[in-house]
Design goal:
alpha/beta, Ubiquitin-like (UB roll), Rossmann fold, 3 domains, 9-stranded mixed β-sheet, 3-stranded mixed β-sheet, 5 helices, 23% strand
Length: 321
């Protein structure tokens, strides 16, 4: 082989080795650059996270110092407004808020829930009035009927418990006199629901029985019907399916179906007026049927005079959003 050809082949091999070394060097430099960039990125992210943590904790410290632990926002007055008879002291106690608590740190929804867990309260609203006042507004449940339930105690002893119902069927115990701003007049009487199952007398719960719901609707309808002031509903028997048996204070027995009370009450008034003209009074009347109403009567002079309970003006319904 010629001498010049051997040298050329040797130079080519050297060039290839130099090229390989150059590629390896560039790859190593690229890898090192990537490692440096990754390290720099991690350092930047760590710095940002540390800065965010410092700002967050610092912001919390500032808020605590300037607002949530600042005596300038301590509660000095709890302003209570209600549309019923509950005392302000009772409402404040149920709200579970103390004077001196920080107004800005107070959980308003917790206070609202505490109020609405009390059966006499239908709706509660809570708001801050800076810098020192918490305002509480309460809409109370108004009882329209009662029931008396016999309870069997351990050992076989019996006890009687009284429960009130509002017009929507929510159950509550009669108000403790200490919670009332004024005691009801002695003449004020609520209709008694007879035959209410004990399971339907859970305070704070709404009754599910169609009979009881219908009886409460009848009581509310009666107070604004043509019969209001003519007689007084003393009790309603809800134990018979599909009908309500009403007893008046004059011991008249009136039977209602569960719907269209306005029509039934008007028919009662027409019959009542006609019998009054004849000097008679209704003893029994079945309004649950449409035609040929069965009526039994007695002489009106033999019955005691009617002293109906005083009607309270209806409170406007609030729409709670």
């Amino acid at each position: 082989m010629p001498h010049w050809l051997k040298r050329k082949r040797k130079n080519r091999r050297a060039q290839e080795r130099d090229h390989e070394l150059d590629v390896k060097l560039r790859t190593s430099q690229t890898r090192a650059a990537r490692v440096r960039m990754a390290g720099l990125g991690v350092a930047v992210l760590f710095s940002l996270a540390l800065a965010a943590l410092v700002l967050w904790r610092g912001g919390e410290w500032v808020l605590d110092r300037l607002i949530y632990e600042n005596d300038a926002f301590a509660i000095r007055q709890i302003d209570v407004q209600t549309d019923g008879v509950l005392t302000s002291d009772a409402i404040r106690a149920w709200a579970k808020v103390r004077l001196g608590e920080n107004l800005m740190a107070l959980d308003l929804m917790r206070v609202k829930r505490s109020l609405e867990r009390q059966p006499p309260i239908q709706f509660g609203a809570v708001e801050r009035v800076l810098p020192h006042t918490l305002k509480i507004t309460v809409n109370e449940r108004e009882p329209v009927a009662q029931t008396i339930v016999t309870l069997i105690r351990p050992g076989g002893t019996q006890d009687q418990a009284v429960y009130d119902f509002d017009e929507d069927g929510y159950v509550m115990k009669p108000l403790d006199p200490r919670w009332r701003t004024a005691q009801p007049p002695a003449s004020e009487r609520l209709p008694i629901l007879v035959g209410v199952p004990p399971a339907e007398t859970q305070p704070g719960q709404q009754v599910t029985s169609p009979q009881i719901r219908a009886a409460l609707a009848l009581v509310c309808e009666f107070d604004h019907s043509p019969m209001a002031g003519m007689v007084e509903i003393q009790s309603i028997d809800v134990s018979v399916p599909e009908i309500l048996k009403v007893t008046t204070s004059q011991k008249a027995q009136i039977t209602f179906s569960l719907a269209h009370f306005d029509t039934q009450l008007r028919r009662w008034r027409l019959i009542y007026d006609q019998y009054q003209k004849w000097g008679r009074a209704i003893a029994t009347l079945d309004l649950s049927i449409s035609n040929n109403l069965p009526v039994h009567w007695v002489a009106a002079a033999t019955l005691p005079a009617v002293v109906p309970r005083a009607l309270q003006p209806a409170r406007p319904k609030r729409k709670h959003v």
